[in-house]
Amino acid sequence: MDSDIRMVELATGHVSNRHQVVNTINLDKYIFRPSDKTEVYHSWYQFDEQLDQHVKSVGSIQGFNGVYYVNNIILDYDRKDLSSQQLYDSVHWLVNTEMIDEIGIDQSHILVWYSGTGFHIEIPNLFGFAPSTTLPSIVKETLTSVFPDCDNIYDGARLIRAGWSFNNKKANFKIPFTVDDFNNHSMDDIEKMSLEGYDLDRIKKHNEAYSQFFADVEPYLKHHLKMPEVTAITAKNTVRSQFRIDPNNVVTCMQTVLGSPPPVGERNITMMRIGSWMRRSGMPIEVVSHALQTWSGMGKEADECAKKIFETGYEYGCQDYVMAKNCKPNCIYFKHKDYNMNVFNVEDLAEKFQEFVQKDFSKTAFNFKDIYSMQEDFWVLPGELVIVTGNTGLGKSTFVMNLVAKLPKMQTLFLSLENTWHLTFRRFVQMTHGLTKEEAIESYRDAKTRAEFQKAFDHIQISCDPPELGRLVEGIARSKPKLVVVDTTDMIFVKGIHDEIGKMNEIINGLKAVAQSQECIIIAVHHVNKEAENTGIVKMSNLKGTSNVSQKADKVIAINGERNEIRRMVSTEKARDEGYMQLMFEFSKRLMQFNQVSGAGGFNA
User: Fold this and answer.
1) Terminal CA-CA length for the chain
2) CATH number attached to the domain at 7-224
3) Fold designation for 361-604
4) What is the DSSP letter of 575?
5) Which helix (H) or strand (E) is 449 found in, with range?
6) pTM of this prediction?
7) Mean pLDDT across the stretch 522-550?
8) How far apart are CA 482 and CA 401, in angstroms?
9) What is the DSSP string of 368-413?
10) How far is C-alpha 31 from the chain's CA centre?
């Protein structure tokens, strides 16, 4: 979703002091007074809010795979080995002859900035570059073709000196000129003016004159737009080696292709897509080349494809011909595509249901009756969202930790978002071995006991970093856990949504959707509202947020009891396809254990 919020990466004081993400409407705050002599840089591209979340999560812009936007185009013509006069003459030719006379750019659409070490020529988005995840490759292909003498500064992570910024190397300021002003001043004049600096009134007048004017220009150079090209090679006889892969649900199209023979007539273009996908996944060129050779049996062609992919940065999206025709509905990116509804007839459903009932659920589902003393079955199946709730201090998180620790056959991703990693780990040690806090800490001073202790919960992977919802969905699709615990739901970030109600609705909808699409169980620990805190009794109506939380949940489990007492009643407030469950436990905070009280709770069908 495009929120119309535009952001840039900023560096102040020095180009290395980057990773600051700023809304473009606040950029005026980073125009320092000349007396401050402060360098400022900003990203060549603009972004939406996903950049802020990416930088907060990763620590830098590296690896960003969101949408890029072009505002104004900035061409960079550096001094290189030219004298000042040669530099001026070269830029004069570029602006007046190439840009205005030959290409046909209106001179009122050109600003010439002198930066101290060269010139930056700024023009509106006259090419009509559209926002996309692959925009840098399109911009690079176009601008290096149209302006070959300008520096190639179009990669997605590039910073460029901001207007009016101080230049430490030359002790001057980056200042703008109209084409007429540039033509009517000598290089000596320009250099002297850049040493003098500026006043705030000049900046205000400049912004009023050009900001909106540039924004309103309709693109009239679209015919120069150049897309990255992939040249198909006539199909040859190949040794068609097939990969035997266990696919996950991230970019399923490429996994499908990699597990199939090279298609006749499309081998080369398909290799380009596979290589691009592998490069974006972080694979080095040697690995990509080897994979392409193994898949195609064509050593030289595979090397050439890999080299082309890494040098040019080819990227392909879901609408690409090769990727689209191999798409699968379980891919995490599938929901963004404009396909028809997935409708089944009765015969199709009968076949799918037969497959479902014949499945072995021993590693993908669990039955409370297998864990606790109960009269009837109470199953939790793949695709279900289970909400666990209760008042503060009753041990919601600890109950869920006890539960998943008793499910060694189920690979579990446990997101402990309110606790530190060492607290979470120590509590798993305590509850699985009946140890106090002190005993658990002391036992880990002895390396001999360490391996034995953690065997009890080695089916659990733990993360304590609050994720963005989209990243969480992707992480689940990649790692394919059978059970995911989110503790707690309100610790998940949601892109573009800032009000609590809207955020919670998006989180619950997202968790339910990923449980279904990835066929896993999600247990979400959820807080209650103030009414429950006041009355001391938790019901389904006390879930924090709107009724959407309980509506999307397949099961709602409530924990009730007195904070200062040891007994806890665990019961179902909702079970979409099961009966009623009610169990009594004694909560040992000292050992972090929920121990069932025999005869005190049971199952009522």
Assistant:
1) 45
2) 3.90.920
3) Rossmann fold (3.40.50)
4) E
5) helix 447-454
6) 0.50
7) 86
8) 15
9) HHHHS--SS--EE-TT-EEEEEE-TTS-HHHHHHHHHHT-TTS-EE
10) 31
